[in-house]
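During the no-cost extension, the postdoctoral fellow (Dr. R.K.) reprocessed legacy sequence entries with the updated structure-token encoder. One reprocessed record is reproduced below for audit purposes.
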Amino acid sequence: MNRLHLWRQWIRPLVMFVYIVILVVALPLMIVEFHENKTDADVQFWFIGGLFVLLSLPISLWGILQHLVHYTEPLLQRHIIRILWMVPVYAINSWFALKFPKTTIYLDSIRECYEAYVIYNFMSYLLNYLRMEHPDLDAYIATKPQVKHLPPACCLSPWRMGTQFVERCKHGVMQYTVMRPLTTFIAFSCYMAGEDFYGEGQFNFRSAWSYLVIVNNISQIFAMYCLILFYKATRAELSPIRPVAKFLCVKAVVFLSFWQSILIAILVNTGAIKLKDDVVKTKAALVLQDLCICIEMFLAAIAHYFSFSYRPFVDLAAEPQDCFTSFKTMWDISDVHKDVVEHIRHVGSTASGVLTSPLQVGRPIRVAETELTPLLSGDEGHLPSTPELSACEATEANLPRGEKFSPQNNSETSAPTKTEKSDAQSKETESSDAHASAANGSLSSGRTIAVLVEVHKADDHSSSKQASQFDGFADNFT
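Re-encoded structure tokens follow.
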């Protein structure tokens, strides 16, 4: 048990010893394979790529181990460790694809899904750092100057600073986290349906690959745009963690590697890269892409080691973490599941709002108070009420429910004078006129309803007799 508590002292030498053993075994085998098939171009590419992979792995592993040993800020370091694993995943993936070309579709699917995972972790790393410095991040962002959209989207209205700005930047990055695995699954399904149907590397728009490339490009560009917009708003607050170097590392590996694959496919298909007659263009493009990734990962490992350094997290006074907790936290993806579910719900609510928005364009729709209102509201028996109430009805309206107005019960009522009688008569005359006007309105409403019913049932031969009876009722009502 005491040795487990001292794991920081022996974990790094142990991992490096294991790696040296693997290197001693693998390197001679690679040399033998290359010597036996040195005229084969695929073997040459595999051997060159393997050398760079063997150089990049110890650099990345050492950086990961240093973060595990000095694991003092779990909210930040778990995202850093996940990003650092990108180099080993990419390097080993591409190297195996060079050796086993038939497994390329499976290996590429893993790599593409990890791309989305890295983008998510980078955005979460920035948000967690800002929330540690500013617990109420949305309110703090709301106090900052308005950030306008970048060209060519500068004509759009800016996102309101505060919750709206933070949420849209976050979900703009999260959409790539969901979209990339989705398009990868579609590509895998299309490949299983037939290589011709998938048509990787063929820009003919008769294959699924062309459309998936367009969708992935749009998703990647929007995710990168949201990252840039978020950095523009929080540049001063993120300056202590040197975000530019970190952003360039992530961008170079994730985004540039994708666009690099498209560029290589274009150069191969247009003949800019000369190939032998017996070499398939699609296979050549994949081999060149995997070789470039193997070489680039060596440079990326060095850049990641210094950009995502462990030194800011070295705190000898911090409470030490046990070995199992550090490793468990590194592989725990419950936060990813939570954020993905939240993003899907956000997209669903936004989509439902867009679909129902045509009914709520401009100001809210208000039904006009006309003679057609009772019919449109479904209350066919209700006719427009009189605009005025009699004195008795007005008094009853102010009494408690169930009580009736009675002049005898009103102690404040006195005998009317001649002037009051004259005023009462004039009010009764006005009330009669009002009731007559209401009757005319009811008559007009009755005629309108009769016309509507007759038009609605004109095509129904069996109901013609009922329509004529309704007309006769309207005439009698007149």
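The mean pLDDT is 76. The chain is about 70% helix and 0% strand. The remaining legacy entries will be reprocessed before the final report is submitted.
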